[in-house]
Design goal:
Strand order of the largest sheet: 2-1-3-4
CATH superfamily: Response regulator
Order of helices and strands: HEHEHHEHEH
Number of domains: 1
CATH topology: Rossmann fold
Shape: globular
Strand content: 5-15%
Number of strands: 4
Structural class: alpha/beta
CATH architecture: 3-Layer(aba) Sandwich
């Protein structure tokens, strides 16, 4: 009970009552735009599919620039307009134990992917690490989620379009029991 209370007080989502069977981590640079949006979108889609208790979703940044800060207000507003609540999320940097704690790590762009591969410890060699966008169906050929931070509010809408599509692809892969990252072994 005390650990759950500490999580709640820290603004972290409570641990599910059922141990998750799969853990997915979304990764971008500062964890205030793309990755928390991806976390919010996938989390809601999993809840709607009845999988919210068995699949845990989190997000982190390759850098700790914004540690403990909420997502960018523009990301929060754009997501809220589509029914996604990002208000309780807080930025955090990727920790070495994330490679052990999460089964799948999704990078928002090729730079993040390269960063993850360079830092993956040998003990985490079985973890799936890849780009999220190859799972999208309505945006063929788009491999990266662009950083909307320095742009207009329209950039946050575009990011949501891409992430909704890619997260639908995650659900399709889960339903088909296919690996979430191409080239990964089935069942992991």
């Amino acid at each position: 009970m005390i650990p759950r209370l500490k999580q709640w007080l820290a603004g972290e989502p409570p641990a599910p009552a059922v141990a998750p069977r799969l853990r997915i981590l979304m990764v971008c640079t500062g964890n205030i735009c793309r990755s928390p949006t991806a976390e919010g979108v996938l989390r809601r889609k999993l809840q709607q599919a009845g999988l919210g208790a068995v699949i845990q979703v989190g997000s982190a940044g390759t850098q700790g620039y914004h540690t403990a800060e909420p997502p960018d207000p523009r990301a929060v507003r754009a997501a809220a307009a589509r029914g996604y609540d990002l208000s309780k999320l807080r930025a955090r940097p990727l920790r070495p134990d994330d490679f052990q704690q999460f089964d799948v790590l999704f990078a928002m762009d090729k730079g993040h992917l390269e960063w993850l591969h360079k830092r993956r410890p040998p003990a985490a060699a079985t973890r799936q690490i890849g780009l999220l966008m190859p799972l999208a169906r309505r945006h063929p050929g788009v491999l990266e989620v662009p950083d909307p931070y320095y742009g207009s509010p329209a950039g946050f809408e575009h990011v949501l379009d891409l992430l909704e599509d890619a997260c639908d692809g995650v659900l399709e892969r889960l339903a088909a029991q296919r690996p979430l990252v191409e080239g990964a072994a089935p069942g992991r």
